[in-house]
Design brief:
protein serine/threonine kinase activity, three-stranded mixed beta sheet, 371 residues, AmidinoTrfase, alpha/beta, single chain, glycine amidinotransferase activity, 21% helix
């Protein structure tokens, strides 16, 4: 038993794969708005996703776990909570939780440290409990493991901009993108907030997206907590940034897959260029719309799981993405996963790398601008 992972591509030996059981359309809260009247959940309503959708998602998650196990990778699974229960702290009450499918949102492994993220949705404040039994097992089994939890946030009204969603939704796309670049989003800077899925790991360099779930204070906390790393706060030209792993995906040393519809900062591109990294625009998604009750975008096509520098798992219907990766020299493993999207994401979202072979390396020895 070993906890250890420095990047997104070293050979994967141990992984957690999430479960769909009990996933909710969240009750209203300041950080997130759900409005799907055509699918039975108009704004202000909440409840469990339909049983037939849950069964279909679990079938694909179980099948994915078997694919990984057949390749000699150890697979663990979380223990879902009763996510339909209301939860509270002394300062607020939330009428439902969310789920335990997107493990990547809540946890990240950096070296031998397993870190629990703050989370910024009240519905996800207690989600770490679904994963605690596994974490406790790892801590008992691996004497070298560091177990850390970021400061648990208060998530009072001071952490959110009142009326944000109505105001932001009325803006044209160009003004929305300008606010994204400026970090003028739903989260204030009252306390550090970040989701682990906003972190892309490349050895000594960690690229952390400022988003609807991660603020500048959260990036600053990570920078202080991980002084041996270079922690870069980054933004992209998108109207609704939420998690970096369907926008900016390191595939192996020297190669990043990028969503061209969400332009990267020029300084970030220069940093990669001076270090001889190639940035490849991802192939266009095969699907035009996300499935019902999904908050994800169609760019889940590039939300993939790298098994080693030559092998990658891709959603099975995304033929253009698979063909592109084949041309880039990868063995592509097609994995049916579209039914999982309403439960919180794609193949990368659904997993946590517990152990990848490899050591800490500096893939960006040359400085450029603020990076």
């Amino acid at each position: 038993m070993k906890v250890g992972s420095w990047n997104e591509w070293d050979p994967l030996r141990h992984v957690v794969v999430g479960r769909a059981d009990g996933t909710m359309v969240q009750a209203p809260e300041p950080a997130v708005v759900r409005d799907w009247p055509e699918h039975g959940f108009p704004r202000g309503t909440y409840g469990p996703l339909p049983e037939e959708m849950t069964a279909a998602a679990n079938e694909q998650l179980d099948s994915f776990a078997r694919v990984l196990e057949a390749r000699g990778i150890r697979v663990d699974r979380p223990r879902p909570l009763d996510f339909g229960r209301p939860v509270a702290t002394p300062e607020w009450t939330q009428r439902s939780m969310f789920g335990a499918m997107p493990v990547r949102d809540v946890l990240v492994v950096i070296g031998n440290e397993l870190l629990e993220a703050t989370m910024s949705f009240r519905s996800r404040w207690f989600e770490y409990l679904a994963h605690r039994p596994l974490i406790e097992d790892y801590f008992r089994a691996d004497p070298d493991m560091r177990w850390e939890a970021a400061p648990k946030p208060r998530l009072t009204g001071a952490s959110y901009r009142p009326g944000f969603w109505e105001e932001f939704g009325a803006l044209p796309a160009g003004e929305q993108i300008a606010r994204v670049r400026a970090g003028d989003l739903v989260l204030t800077e009252a306390e550090p907030l970040f989701d682990a899925a906003d972190i892309a790991r490349c050895g000594k360099d960690l690229f952390v997206q400022r988003s609807l779930a991660t603020n500048a204070a959260g990036i600053r906390w990570l920078r202080h907590h991980l002084p041996e790393h270079r922690v870069h706060g980054v933004t992209f030209g998108t109207t609704h940034p939420l998690h970096i792993d369907a926008t900016w995906v390191p595939l192996r040393p020297g190669l990043v897959l990028h969503c061209a519809e969400r332009p990267a900062e020029e300084e970030l591109l220069r940093y990669l260029a001076v270090n001889d990294w190639q940035v490849v625009p991802a192939a266009a998604p095969g699907r035009r719309e996300p499935p019902p009750l999904s908050a994800c975008s169609r760019w889940l096509s590039m939300n993939l799981l790298v098994l080693d520098p030559r092998t990658v798992c891709v959603e099975a219907s995304e033929t253009a993405q698979m063909e592109q990766l084949d041309r880039l020299g990868f063995e592509v493993v097609p994995v049916p996963f579209w039914d999982v999207a309403p439960f919180g994401g794609g193949l990368h979202c659904a997993t946590l790398d517990v152990h990848r072979e490899g050591v800490l390396e500096d893939y960006f020895p040359r400085r450029s601008g603020r990076f």
